[in-house]
From TrEMBL:
GO biological process, one term: proteolysis involved in protein catabolic process
Record's keyword annotation contains Nucleus: yes
Keywords: Nucleus, Proteasome
Protein name: Proteasome subunit beta
One GO CC term, this protein: proteasome core complex
Source species taxonomy: Eukaryota, Viridiplantae, Streptophyta, Embryophyta, Tracheophyta
């Protein structure tokens, strides 16, 4: 909330993209770990490179290890990638809990965006339709958290590499009558 223009997505190696929510300094520490891992992997010079599955497993171990030392990295991570035609999308929490799925979310998105994704996502979704679906999810999240920023950044991962677009602002409409007096008609002491 304090730093509104910090980008939270970074390419990892040739095949992966990492996104993070949470503490930015801990995200920088994770990026330092990953840079060392990629550098070590490149020193083998065997023509092979780490894919998204291997990076996801590494992040799971890092987050779980830091949790066990009672010094967790305060981030939720999303890692996606494509290698040898295999698509991969996974998430890791700050305590090392991880899973992979066709669509993932962190934080508030687990409660508000995931139901929309479960209902509207399908296997043959085009990039443009996926973009619209993502914007719909982000608008719902923005309307529910007024301290959030209405900027969004989209990335595309293909066999050729990772493309991260410039951030842009969502189109919003704040003239709904329920936004004017949200407590009107509410039952209880709130």
């Amino acid at each position: 909330m304090r730093y509104k223009s910090v980008e939270r997505m970074k390419p990892i190696g040739k095949h992966s993209l990492l996104g993070a929510s949470g503490e930015i300094s801990d995200f920088q520490e994770i990026l330092r770990y990953l840079n060392e891992l990629i550098l070590y992997d490149n020193m083998w010079d065997n023509g092979n490179s780490l894919g998204p599955k291997e990076v996801h497993n590494y992040l799971t171990r890092v987050m779980y290890n830091r949790r066990n030392k009672f010094n967790p990295l305060w981030n939720s991570l999303v890692l996606g990638g494509v290698k040898n035609g295999n698509k991969y999308l996974g998430t890791v929490s700050m305590i090392g809990v991880n899973f992979k799925d066709n669509h993932v979310a962190t934080g508030f998105g687990n409660h508000l965006a995931q139901p929309i994704l479960r209902q509207e996502w399908h296997k043959n979704l085009s990039f443009e339709d996926g973009d619209k679906l993502l914007e719909k999810c982000m608008c719902v999240l923005l309307y529910r958290d007024r301290s959030a920023v209405n900027k969004l950044q989209i990335a595309k991962i293909t066999e050729e590499g990772v493309t991260i677009n410039q951030p842009y602002s969502l189109k919003t409409y704040w003239e709904f009558s329920t936004f004017e007096n949200p407590a009107q008609g509410a039952i209880g002491s709130w």
